[in-house]
Inverse folding.
């Protein structure tokens, strides 16, 4: 166990909420935090340990507020405790989704209502200051950080920023909803009866197209399934303009994820192959750009 993981586990042990002594069980999956399952006399709990990460625009108080609101909206597990960099939830027994699950039309029909609930029900329960997550701000922010830190990707920044400018213009004016903004398949849990949506690190007001595009790009949906996604969400077949804006936001999602990973290569201490993840997302961006350019 690394020094950071050891310290995080001790922070979990020392929480005053447990019934008796506990031994946190490390869980895989977190790349901006460390995750643990804790069992005590009262039940099982999921604990996220992670401090603010300004370079990634992550504020844990915002994450905690969004998670409480998501629970009230019927999407997230109950929040049992929050502290400085600590979030304790009721543990949900279920299966974490993968890309193939999201591409299954039967599963997609269950995900879209959850997405609508996130967009329209969470803000009814949200308390305190709220963030706006605008992907193009994030891209420009990362470009500045990469430039300042002499990233090996610096030579690519002009090209990537040119793409970002074109995409932002293509998307134009937006509808504003409350976005999850990190729709990796693993952030959905299926307990057999309902779909849970977890991990609100980046939650904030945004265009619904960012979540729709992120969901599609992260699962590598085929074009016909993307049309089904848009039809289910909007209640009608997408027209040419909506498809172009959707394809632009898919590219923006992948561009942001690529630059997030480039930045993480420089600063993260987690045991994760960020270089490979960067290349994977750049490859996906290239394919998505080809589709966007043809619409």
């Amino acid at each position: 166990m690394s020094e950071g993981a050891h310290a995080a586990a001790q922070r979990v042990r020392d929480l005053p909420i447990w019934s008796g002594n506990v031994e946190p069980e490390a869980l895989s999956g977190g790349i901006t935090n460390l995750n643990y399952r804790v069992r005590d006399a009262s039940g099982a709990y999921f604990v996220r340990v992670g401090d603010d990460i300004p370079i990634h625009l992550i504020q844990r108080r915002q994450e905690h507020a969004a998670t409480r609101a998501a629970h009230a909206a019927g999407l997230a597990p109950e929040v049992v405790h929050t502290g400085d960099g600590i979030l304790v939830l009721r543990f949900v027994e279920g299966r974490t989704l993968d890309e193939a699950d999201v591409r299954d039309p039967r599963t997609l029909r269950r995900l879209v209502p959850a997405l609508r609930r996130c967009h329209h029900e969470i803000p009814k329960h949200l308390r305190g200051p709220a963030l706006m997550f605008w992907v193009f701000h994030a891209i420009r922010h990362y470009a500045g950080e990469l430039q300042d830190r002499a990233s090996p990707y610096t030579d690519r920044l002009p090209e990537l920023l040119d793409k970002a400018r074109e995409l932002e213009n293509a998307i134009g004016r937006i509808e504003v909803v409350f976005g999850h903004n990190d729709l990796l398949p693993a952030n959905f849990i299926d307990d057999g009866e309902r779909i849970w949506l977890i991990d609100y690190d980046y939650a904030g007001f945004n265009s619904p197209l960012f979540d729709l595009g992120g969901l599609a790009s992260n699962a590598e949906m085929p074009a016909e399934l993307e049309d089904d996604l848009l039809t289910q969400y909007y209640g009608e077949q997408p027209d040419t303009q909506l498809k172009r804006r959707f394809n632009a936001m898919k590219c923006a999602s992948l561009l942001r994820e690529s630059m997030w990973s480039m930045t993480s290569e420089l600063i993260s201490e987690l045991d994760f192959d960020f270089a490979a993840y960067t290349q994977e997302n750049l490859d996906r961006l290239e394919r998505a750009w080809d589709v966007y350019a043809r619409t």
Remarks:
- The chain has two domains: 3-90, 95-293.
- The first strand starts at residue 25 and ends at 27.
